[in-house]
């Protein structure tokens, strides 16, 4: 999969349209985590060394085609200005005044930031008219929004297609994400351990089936584990189970057997009577869970076993929490996995918002070799799909 990269574009004094993923959490007008803005800086700095005529664009939240002030990118513009040391001219009405005209008025220390793309219904519909408005007057297109590459939206696909193939390229973040995730599917160092958690087998089936081609161990946690245990005929009490998805689990076992991948399930659990922030945690030291209790985290023996396997692995990929980590009493399994990964000598990759949040909560995010910025995009990529935002940049 050969896509065009930033260093293949001639950017000198060009007008450059850049799709970024600046979809950061904002509470009461304050950005609570600016990781995604920081992740976009290397590409912006690279472009700014060659031209000052740069216009970043992004979505924020899901305003569903309507102008909603709480989803304005204005606070993002202020933070971007601070981090880049430039002035950011915020362009609200770019569908009325072509951005090109604004660019022509700018000083050398000013860049443009478009208002939230999803204020316009044309964005998610990949509307041609809206795509034209975005692309109009620009010489080059760069996509560095890894988290949205799986969406065939106007700023990701439609606008990109309006540039000649040699005028559109991936940014540095997209390049790095793809080389790491593609590397896991090429020749990962063995043993390669995949840790899957989260709520549903059905959400992860594509990824699991694809990764069974490459992995040696598959460790299961989260609510997913109870569907696996149920399939094995083990009592799981009142745990969350996808009873109608047992056929998917059967398929996973069949493929795992053919490829000699060992699937490892929790052997003890932390349970509660109900799914509640104030629920009292009960240790259940057996594989089976009695009626009246539901499994909400992996137990201490499982935590140790998973940590031991992680320590011995050369490549480790983790997606999806081991339990209801949002509630402190059920967060330990996820925190132990994050800590074990941080200590592991192997190459470590974490994808998916919740697992990344768990690594942050454990204070070990810096010790992980690669943390993916895109949950949905990384999952679809690991299913083996060519993402729409990548396809348009292929050579
Ligand atoms: P996902 O979005 O599929 O990665 O799932 C993440 C969600 O799964 C988190 O909000 C967790 O609270 C939830 N989760 C993890 N383990 C369990 C469990 N044992 N029972 C119910 N929900 C769980």
* Span between termini: 8 Å
Unique ligands: adenosine monophosphate
CATH class annotation of the largest domain: Alpha Beta
- Please give the order of strands in the largest beta sheet: 11-10-9-15-16-17
Note the beta-strand portion: 15-25%
Low-confidence stretches: none
- What form results from the Cα inertia axes? elongated
**What is the total number of structural domains?**
2
**Biggest sheet record:** 6 strands, parallel
Would you give the CATH topology of the largest domain? Rossmann fold
Helix content: 25-40%
Query: What's the total helix number?
Result: 15
Radius of gyration: 23 Å
Chain-averaged pLDDT: 95
CATH architecture of the largest domain: 3-Layer(aba) Sandwich
Number of strands: 17
Going by CATH, the homologous superfamily of the largest domain would be Phosphoglycerate kinase, N-terminal domain
Helix-strand makeup class = alpha/beta
């Amino acid at each position: 999969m050969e896509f065009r990269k930033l260093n293949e574009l001639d950017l000198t004094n060009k007008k450059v349209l850049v799709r970024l993923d600046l979809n950061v959490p904002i509470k009461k007008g304050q950005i609570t985590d600016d990781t995604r803005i920081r992740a976009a800086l290397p590409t912006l700095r690279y472009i700014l060394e060659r031209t000052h005529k740069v216009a970043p664009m992004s979505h924020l939240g899901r305003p569903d085609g309507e102008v909603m002030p709480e989803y304005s990118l204005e606070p993002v513009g202020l933070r971007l200005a601070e981090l880049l040391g430039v002035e950011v001219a915020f362009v609200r009405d770019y569908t009325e005044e072509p951005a090109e005209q604004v660019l022509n008025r700018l000083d050398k220390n000013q860049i443009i930031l478009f208002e939230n793309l999803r204020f316009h219904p044309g964005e998610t519909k990949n509307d041609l008219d809206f795509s034209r408005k975005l692309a109009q007057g620009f010489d080059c297109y760069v996509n560095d929004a890894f988290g949205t590459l799986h969406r065939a939206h106007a700023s990701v696909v439609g606008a990109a297609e309006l540039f000649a193939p040699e005028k559109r390229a991936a940014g540095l973040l997209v390049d790095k994400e793809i080389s790491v995730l593609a590397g896991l599917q090429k020749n990962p160092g063995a043993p390669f351990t995949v840790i899957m958690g989260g709520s549903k087998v059905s959400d992860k089936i594509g990824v699991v089936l694809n990764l069974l081609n490459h992995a040696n161990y598959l460790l299961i946690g989260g609510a997913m584990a109870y569907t696996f245990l149920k399939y094995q005929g083990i009592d799981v009490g009142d745990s969350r189970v996808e009873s109608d998805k047992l056929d998917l689990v059967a398929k996973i076992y069949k493929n795992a057997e053919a490829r000699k991948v060992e699937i490892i399930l929790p052997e003890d659990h932390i349970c509660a009577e109900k799914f509640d922030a104030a629920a009292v945690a009960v240790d259940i030291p057996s594989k089976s869970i009695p009626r009246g209790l539901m499994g909400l985290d992996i137990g201490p023996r499982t935590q140790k076993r998973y940590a031991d396997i992680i320590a011995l692995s050369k490549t480790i990929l983790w997606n999806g929490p081991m339990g209801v980590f949002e509630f402190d009493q059920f967060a330990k399994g996820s925190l132990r996995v994050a800590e074990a990964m941080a200590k592991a000598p192997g190459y470590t990759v974490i994808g998916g918002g919740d697992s990344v949040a768990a690594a942050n909560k454990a204070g070990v995010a810096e010790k992980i070799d690669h943390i993916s910025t895109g949950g949905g995009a990384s999952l679809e990529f690991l299913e083996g799909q060519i993402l729409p935002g990548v396809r348009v940049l292929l050579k």
